Fold:
Amino acid sequence: MTNTENHKKRAVLRVRPGQFVVTPAIERVAIRALRYLTSGFAIHLRGPAGTGKTTLAMHLANCLDRPIMLIFGDDEFKSSDLIGSESGYTHKKLLDNYIHSVLKVEDEFKQNWVDSRLTLACREGLTLVYDEFNRSRPEVNNVLLSALEEKILTLPPSSNQPEYLHVHPKFRAIFTSNPEEYCGVHATQDALMDRLVTINMPEPDELTQTEILTHKTGLNHEYAQLVVRLVKAFRSLTGGEKTSGLRSCLIIAKICAEHDIVVTPENSDFREICADVLFNRTKLSASESTTVFLELLNHLRVQSQSVEQVDHSDPYDVAEEEISGELEPQTEAIAEPVTLDESLLSDNPN
Structure:
């Protein structure tokens, strides 16, 4: 087996079935993306971190029923990291002593070319998933231009292979990226963006996030919905909407499910987990975050009482001082009162 064959065997991926959660909103995006891919166009999934871009990209690649080549963008990338390079030498020495009085010696050194992942994908017709491609410098991604448009990949001069590779007709490319204001992200050249069909990925809706939590963690639907609404409301009130709240929801739900922690506002373990996960994702101080969080818990308790129509004794009556003391020893409160938008926690969010 050649070096290229060995490298290809290591690099190609297969997605395990049954790992993707489909809701009406996700299905609509997937159908649009598959239309472009099956017509031969590269697609670009763009959106904040945590919106499921990579997961959707892997699902789309799996739907194409071709092996997957995965690349992660990196500021240290060079063009050779995408297309390949010459690595090592082949030494060939021939001694010809057929005529005993004559010794003929031929000594040959030849460099070995090793394909990198983009070249392998183009040569074999694989599906390329280039995750966070704009973390790589724009000049590195220039090698993609001719591969996507003219279907020809230009290779550096080499003694043992052609300089041009015709792209396999089944080659497809899926790109993902974060917004340009993110740290470590480069502006993408217009020539490359012009060759991509860009689909903006917003924050997943409540139904999608709830189904993902239920499927991924095993948490029941009611608890999963409470976690999603709590995280969404907290992020909205604290200005932490630069990234998606889905990762925070998954962390909280997974811990609660695996350790049998009841997801209710009066449960101190649940409150502490939420505080640990959410407070460092906001620029507010600890005391300000605690105040906002306590307001949300109080609002949730009121909703629980009205929905369940409990008697006059309040089973969720937990002293605010007790909650504040468990979450944060500071007692300083923010100067301005917190105003809650009840639609954030309602049964019919916008």
About this structure: Residues 77 and 136 are 6 Å apart (CA to CA).
